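Deviations from the work plan: none for this task. Representative record:
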Amino acid sequence: MATYKLNTPISEEEIRNLQVNDVIYISGTMFTARDQAHRRALELYKEGKKPPLEMEGLAVFHCGPIVRKEQDKWMIVAAGPTTSTRMELFEDEFIKNFKVRVVVGKGGMGPKTTDAMKQYGAVYGAFTGGAAVLAAKAVKNVKSVEWFDLGMPEALWILEVEDFGPLTVAIDAHGNNLFKDVQEKVEENKQKIYQKLGV
Amino acid sequence: MKIETLVEDVGVKLLQLAVTKLPQDVKESLQQAYREEENGAGKTQLEAILKNIDLAEKTSTPMCQDTGVIIFYIKAGAQTQNLDKIEKALSKATIRATKEVPLRPNAVNPFTQKNSGDNTGRYVPFIHWEIVSGNTIEITVLPKGGGSENVCSLGMISPGTGVKGLKNFVIDTVMNAGAKPCPPNILGVAVGGGADIAMKLAKEALLRPLNESNPDPELAKLETELYDAANMTGIGPMGLGGKFTVLGVKVDYAHRHPASYPVAVAFQCWAARRASARIHADGTVEYLTHKVM
């Protein structure tokens, strides 16, 4: 278990160097995308068009932030992670087409994403659920917002971040998935627990 | 001051205290978990939680973006006047706190999907009433997050399996919930009464301070047993592995129908927010869960 500070754009080599349980902090550019933004970006790609942002080497954040406008300037009020499994539908294609290197969220992701991360070089960084103040503090600036027509939580918020973390590498680029490992261990512990409870 | 104005002001203060500052017993329990957690990933999560709590408190910002659906519990002294004014006052307090704190608007009509925008709506905030003797009004607020609510579970298990069945149901519920309720959690467990009563008691049990054990020695034993079992699962903080899946288990019960054995499990996330105050007959306010300058 090691700690790394990464600056965007992050290279595939830096990503391949990471193992599950490592802790990373990200500085540079990060953007939020939930279900709708994932869908729209992939639709554009299919039509041969580009999304409004060059995503290669960046971190995508599963987050619907609370944002406030103060004198023409957007301010992040709270920006905790949302449940990532909803994006399992899109994430493998998203990683393949846009070469994002870090996916940030909570709760982990499934086998399709794990495979894509191994194949194309990306990791999943688990951010503490609900730790909205910690996240907001690491956001230094809202660079811009795209696709605001999707509504505040679903829009693509492009953020300048400094030492955003701690993110626990829960899926690495070698096919390891910490959430899956924990689930398997829970399954292994089941009989022992039943025995202890006498059930 | 009129009772409705006083209750409204206290309501706003309680909401603000609850979402920005955890009660001391929860904070201490999280600190202890951090000290004792041996799993690296789990410990990292607890460290982030503690930092986040500290920042929220210092900046008076909600500690989680999900400021929950608002539930009040009231113990009203039978000699208190104007109790009919309280519901309206607490509804007003919720609207004001939504703007002033701020809280995330979390009241959505289930048919039109329209968000009311101010955290009020049909049965929201929900108010549980209890009439007690005396002339004081005790108000507790429980802002309840959605992630932990979504894994609450009710089992109408076979009475023949009894307490064994209860234990089995509770531990299976914890294992199925996994990372979803943002562990480490507090579990409220209640048995008996009927489907509604079991769940009401389970949720209300979440309000009991973590450092108070059950006055009934048999139930205290069951709480410890379930606590140990839940922490043997290995789910750990935020489901990343470790020995702290729960911070505490609180058990309550009601007598049951011979044919029924309802078991309810209510989950609270690590952001176990609650705040209480007592309003005395002379208008003085005593805050019970938080220090107020």
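The beta strands of chain A are 3-7, 23-32, 59-61, 66-70, 73-78, 102-105, 123-126, 139-146, 156-171.
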